Amino acid sequence: MKINIPTPLRAFTDKQATVEVNGATVQAGLDALVAAHPELKNHLFTPDGKLRSFVNVYLNDDDVRYLPAAEASAVSADDELTIIPSIAGGRTGRPGVSASRALCCR
Amino acid sequence: MKLHITQADYDALRAHGEETYPHECCGVMLGHAKDDGNHVAAIVRAGNTRTDSAHNRYNISPIELIKIQREGRKQGLDIVGFYHSHPDHPAMWSSTDFAEAHWFGCCYVITSVDKGKANLTNAFHLSGTTEDDKAFQQEEILITEAVGENA
Ligand SMILES: [Zn+2]
Predict the structure, then answer these.
(1) Closest to B129 (Cα-Cα) out of A38, A84, A49, A43
(2) Is residue A97 domain-resident?
(3) How high is the ipTM of this complex?
(4) Is the confidence at residue A11, as pLDDT, over 50?
(5) Which domains does chain B have, with CATH numbers?
(6) pTM for this structure?
(7) Which chain B residues touch A61 with a CB distance below 8 Å?
């Protein structure tokens, strides 16, 4: 399968925009990706091995989180996985969060 | 590092914020990352999925982002940044903007839209490589003459 790498993570894939890996499931593909590019691990997964909340993985046009088998979903050689960090924000901090975080411009 | 963008794209992303006022607009900047900064070759408008709170939130759905990235790749362009507007609020990043910024190396452009008119536009480069060392650094916006320069 082909895995599309977003611009910020290409620093860890020798600048490659796509990486070709073998694997029968989404999880196997991600494992193979991390095995080939170990620096990616910390960027994709939490210490207990879960995908980070802001990292979305799509199997073709489907969010893997919402597939019936999730990461265990079967993948064929023609399938494409896309790793895409989320994009969001807003003019104010979340109530209760901004005050404690002290990261705000205001 | 500077953000290189044409006058036409710069004007267009500011106009987008005026059109969606009093809601936030958002979009994607496609181009190339170079040693002197990100060069924008095209901007793509995105739909704000935060219809529940569009006056102070923006969100681009991952699938829309994937489609924009896919179209960009066909033209040899990568995602180099994002823009959004702050209706009646300064053109500075908020705690939410920072917490939800994960595209290291990319540029986040924010335009303040005051009473429906685009006011200031600022660019912030997301430096660092992890959630722990990331930082927003304001960078100069360099208006370039022609698209060819950034392509
Ligand atoms: Zn914002």
Answers:
(1) A43
(2) no
(3) 0.87
(4) yes
(5) 2-144 (3.40.140.10)
(6) 0.89
(7) 63, 66
